[in-house]
Amino acid sequence: MIIGRPLPVRLPLRYHSGMNAISFQPFVIGVAGGSGSGKSTVSQQVLASFGADMVSVVMQDDYYCDQSGLPPEVRRKQNYDHPQAFDWPLLVQHVEALRNGRAIDMPVYDFTSDNRSSKTILVKPAPVIVIEGLFALYDADLRNMMSLKIFVDTAPDVRFIRRMQRDIAERGRSLESIVNQYMETVRPMHKQFIEPTKRYADVILPHGANDPAVDVITTKVASVIGQLQRR
Predict the structure, then answer these.
(1) 77 annotated binding-site participant
(2) What residues does ATP bind to (predicted)?
(3) According to the annotation, is 37 in a ligand binding site?
(4) HSE (CB half, 13 Å, CA atoms) of 139?
(5) Pick from 128, 91, 132: which is nearest to 225 by CA?
(6) Domains: count for the chain
(7) Concatenated DSSP letters for 59-112?
(8) Residue 69 annotated as binding?
């Protein structure tokens, strides 16, 4: 089930842009939660349900600060689970641009080198914008741009197992380094910074990205898109 406050219908304001077909302010959804909680499952399901023309996804993981000035051994030791690890000004600037009908070049973070890649991804404005990340609900400026705030709440053991599997398969990490990082930064930072953002959520998914919960979210998005299309 979904637990949270009743969701008011908040229709976006109209705006006009000569370069884009969007004629309204997008419906912005924030999806937060701990590492391995299922945030990506929620975001990707919304995207798959409505398509890239209707939904743009901004990944906070790609907004880690550029660390080109640091040697690789120093980068690896950084605390990537602290709010200060992120480039907040750029993230806020990019979300504001999308809300105003302007495309962005979203950075791409390379987790194998612990640094921002030279590549970028073109993200075009859309009626629905999803901001996904550990700290999606942390920053007040971001929260103020959101129409719907979601916190994906998953048991710690499940989150750890998912993180371990991902880091070994996708990021070339050793089991020892994963466990050390989890105990030294991931777990304490989750308790100090991520878990408290649950209080800002309109909706809490208490058992992760389960099918009934995701269905409710996509139904809400479908309703919003339907209203926008009738305006």
Answers:
(1) no
(2) 33-40
(3) yes
(4) 23
(5) 128
(6) 1
(7) EGGGGBPP-TTS-HHHHHTS-TTSGGGB-HHHHHHHHHHHHTT--EEEEEEETT
(8) no
DSSP result, 178-205: HHHHIIIIIHHHIIIIIGGGGGG-SEEE
Q: In this structure, what CATH number is given to the domain that contains residue 117? A: 3.40.50.300
Residue pair 217/42 in contact by the 8 Å Cβ criterion: yes
Kind plus residue range of the DSSP H or E element containing 47: helix 39-50
Kindly report the pTM of this predicted structure. 0.86
Residue 33 assigned as binding residue: yes
Q: List, for residues 171-195, the tens digit of each pLDDT value.
A: 888 999 999 999 999 999 999 999 9
Instruction: Give the three-state DSSP class for 177.
Output: helix
pLDDT (tens digit per residue) in 77-116: 899 999 999 999 999 999 999 999 999 999 999 988 889 9
Is-contact 27 127, C-beta < 8 A? Answer: yes
Return the structure tokens found at 224: 């919003």
| Measured distance CA(21)–CA(116) in Å, rounded | 31
User: 34 labelled as ligand-binding?
Assistant: yes
Asked if residue 43 belongs to a known ligand binding site, the reply is no
Token pair for residue 37? 């909680």
Q: Which of 92, 81, 80 is nearest to 116 (CA)?
A: 80
